[in-house]
Write a structure and sequence with these properties.
By secondary structure, the protein is of the alpha+beta class. 49% of the residues lie in helices and 16% in strands. GO terms for molecular function: catalytic activity. This is tRNA(Arg) A34 adenosine deaminase TadA. Residues 4-121 form the CMP/dCMP-type deaminase domain.
């Protein structure tokens, strides 16, 4: 359920996205709000500027949360973002321990507005293979 506070913080994320455009960056913005609703940190997309495919605001904030927040605080922290996180960012959000994401625009809506957003080709994956060899470093690490 989206509250009036959620809407206010989501509007801020959209404003960050709009500001990004004025800086020549892609139109995506995000912020983290702590358990008390205070804004902890904000970010926008800098993929082109940084020549870094991982410079999505959601991933930047997930990484910040993983570094800066203890697990209990992260679990009570909400990410507000102008667009639904992509698969890369969603994985980072899960691993960061953030408790909630609120987004303005769904992936489907984004693709309707900008069809190129959904034009990523599928990448072939083969495996698993070499289980006996691959298990050694895993077992060594996790048994230590």
């Amino acid at each position: 359920m989206i509250s009036s506070t959620d809407e206010e913080l989501l509007r801020r994320a959209v404003a960050i996205a709009a500001d990004a455009v004025t800086l020549g960056d892609a139109p995506y913005g995000s912020l983290l709000a702590g358990p008390d609703g205070a804004i902890l940190v904000e970010a926008h997309n800098t993929v082109r500027r940084d020549n870094d495919i991982s410079a999505h605001p959601e991933l930047k904030l997930a990484r910040w949360a993983a570094r800066e927040l203890d697990a209990q605080t992260a679990a009570r922290t909400t990410m507000y973002t102008s667009c639904q996180p992509c698969g890369m960012c969603a994985g980072g959000i899960v691993r960061s321990g953030l408790g909630r994401v609120v987004y303005a625009l769904s992936t489907e809506q984004l693709v309707e507005l900008n069809p190129e957003s959904g034009a990523w080709p599928a990448v072939a994956q083969d495996g698993p293979a070499l289980f006996e060899a691959a298990r050694v470093p895993i077992e060594t690490y996790y048994r230590s």
